[in-house]
Design goal:
4% of the residues lie in helices and 48% in strands. By secondary structure, the protein is mainly β. Strands 1, 2, 3, 4, 5, 6, 7, 8, 9, 10 and 11 form an eleven-stranded mixed beta sheet that branches. It is globular and about 50 Å long.
């Protein structure tokens, strides 16, 4: 009959967590959508992108925090001035426009033009070309130790050229609403100087 033999404890105790595999990072959750309203036509178009087609990137650079969200057909680029980032980053950041030139967040919207799929891109520099923008970026959580960022953004721009069409005098004007959520987005930090 086998006899139970106790195993002596190690000379230096090993913490229980050290026995587990390295803790994995939380799963990044991204959502992104757009809404175009054409008041003269009484028509609207909206799209919520499937999560599997949305990618996100956050980079802290010398001049600010860059947030980039991309889908198959469009992209939203947000840049929060570093000098205006709050100490723990958590807070709301207003969008810069002609009427709020000192606001901390710049926004560029890019999308594929319908008449030139694959090679025609519209870029709307909303912060410099728009008299008034509403919305902003809200950071709801920032984990300094793991460099993970969570929050949401909303951009509302009135009287804009149709982003999916080549600019022209006959193109209808529209209201553009861009919105998205991000959770556990990893922040890339600048390389340390050697």
């Amino acid at each position: 009959m086998p006899r139970f033999v106790p195993v002596p404890p190690p000379a230096t105790p090993v913490p229980a967590l050290a026995l587990l595999p390295e803790a994995s990072r939380p799963v990044v959750v991204l959502a992104m959508g757009q809404y175009f309203y054409f008041p003269t036509l009484g028509y609207c178009h909206s799209r919520i992108h499937q999560a599997r087609h949305v990618t996100g990137r956050a980079t802290l650079g010398q001049h600010g925090l860059r947030l980039q969200f991309t889908s198959l057909l469009d992209a939203v680029h947000l840049h929060i001035d570093r000098a205006q980032l709050q100490a723990a980053w958590v807070g709301s950041y207003q969008l810069r426009c002609q009427m709020a030139a000192d606001a901390p967040t710049r926004v560029v919207y890019c999308c594929v033009r319908e008449e030139e799929p694959g090679n025609g891109i519209s870029r709307l520099h909303l912060s410099t070309s728009t008299p008034q923008l509403t919305g902003g970026v809200t950071i709801t959580a920032y984990d300094l130790q793991r460099q993970l960022l969570s929050g949401y953004y909303e951009v509302r721009a009135l009287d804009q050229p149709t982003p999916t069409r080549r600019a022209g005098l006959t193109a209808p004007r529209c209201t553009i609403v861009l919105a998205g959520d991000f959770e556990f987005l990893s922040v890339q930090l600048p390389a340390l100087a050697k």
